[in-house]
Amino acid sequence: MTHLLPRSTPERQSVRSAAISRLIAALDGISHIHTLTVVRHGHVVAEATWAPYEREVPTAMYSVSKSFTSIAVGLAVADGLLTVDDRVVDLLPDMVPEQPSGHLAALRVRHLLTMTTGHVVEPPLEDADWARAALDAELTREPGTHWMYNTPATHLLSQVLQRLTGQRLVDYLAPRLFEPLGFRRPEWRQSPTGVDAGGFGLSIRPEELAVFGQLLLQRGRWEGRQLVPAAWIDAATSRQVANDPGDGDWNQGYGYQFWRCRHDAYRGDGAFGQYVVVLPEFDAVVAITGGLPDMQEPLDAIWDALLPAFDTDAAPEDVVAATPIAAIDGGSRHAAVAHEYEGPLRAIRVEDGLLAIDGWELPWVPGSWSIGAFPPDPTADRLWYGDRVAVSGGWSGETFRADLRLLGDATTFHLQLEASGHLRITRDVGFDGTDVWEGEPRNQPAVVAHHIAVSP
User: Which H/E stretch holds residue 413?
Assistant: First the structure.
């Protein structure tokens, strides 16, 4: 493993180890935290990885991608390619309706950056051309007067940058940002028209997320080079507009694709628990990846457990690592069971050490994590990022249960298979709530494999 940031003990960077332990214990009590990286004075003073996740595996950033898009816009402004006051109809003249509305004619880059486009309903990313769909959608409010979280607005920024630079967003950022910071080649999902999504789709490693935060903390300067203009980072991370009238860390104001936080901090964040939190007052950065439904919980843990690390002491807590599904707890199990289904999932087979789902074979070991991979399939309409998956499963009486954790994504699938063939699969997090799929086998007598009872 190659470290991108130097390591240090907490005390050498004026951080209380006891409070670091308390933070890790607090996060351990939150379901599906994947990784934690704490940086103080430019040094990693704490890092934790919850099994079975891996720090070297790129993970989906979801809307943290927006913050990288903001930096790309800042670089393009510095290159003289555009200004924040440019009109979108002038930058994408062939993509707007023939007779744009007055509100669309008034739409500027600044409004895309601050999510004050005038939409009151977020345009869906369903059409083949996401940018045209966003420009065709009605702007009910005057741009600049109404904040609404708006991923298609960020995609329009990516479309503008690709038009101006002739490069994908990920390629434009490569020599200017990713390579100087030591990133491996990031991946960025594209629209059907070949434009990087902008508002989501970037996958990077956990430490790379922390490095990005450190660059922000240093106002764009890295190893003697000013990679990003300091004035842009100051503007992007400042409160540009008011946002939701919610509570906690969701109503502190919004910048250029960055959220303001309590304690004079700011963050980039992505769905299901991807965060890079920058605390300028404390010269610190906290990066977290996860797959959780309540995104306020980790922020509360940072404020409650980490901030006291800078000025008070606390007794360390015992930290218990995430545990896999329990092994066999008695009763009988089956040496091999196979069933076929009508529906999205067509076949499943469980035998000792092997779980096969629609022909994808994954290893499993009772009571521990096994790492496998779904074979690359460019024709598959997948709902997740990456192919590496960790499996933990086991028989309990007549029931086989397994967790499938996607190592490059936020999602965990829970599988429960009865020997009779009844199958239930749930998904922890998703944009449409928790997914549940249940099915009964077809042609059951023909496909159920031999049953062998074993002693507890």
Answer: strand 412-418
Mention every residue, 6+ apart, whose C-beta is less than 8 A from residue 127.
Answer: 133
Cα gap 394→159, rounded to integer Å = 48
DSSP assignments along 224-268, one per residue: TEE-S-HHHHHHHTS--B---S-STTSSS-B-SS-EE-STT-EEE
Encode pLDDT of 260-294 as tens digits.
Answer: 999 999 999 999 999 999 999 999 999 999 999 88
Q: Taking the model in full, what pTM does it have? A: 0.91
CATH number at residue 271: 3.40.710.10
Structural domain count of the chain: 2
Are 272 and 420 contained in the same domain?
no
Show the domain range for 380.
336-447
Residues 180 and 250 in one domain: yes
d(CA 291, CA 52): 13
Indicate whether 328 belongs to any domain.
Answer: no
Question: What is the chain's length?
Answer: 456
Tokens linked to 295: 């995104």
Q: Of 310, 327, 355, which closes a domain?
A: 310
46-88 residue pLDDT tens: 999 999 999 999 999 999 999 999 999 999 999 999 999 999 9
pLDDT digits (tens, 9 = 90+) for 146-156: 999 999 999 99
> Is 1 a member of any domain?
no
CB contact at 8 A, 369 and 16:
no
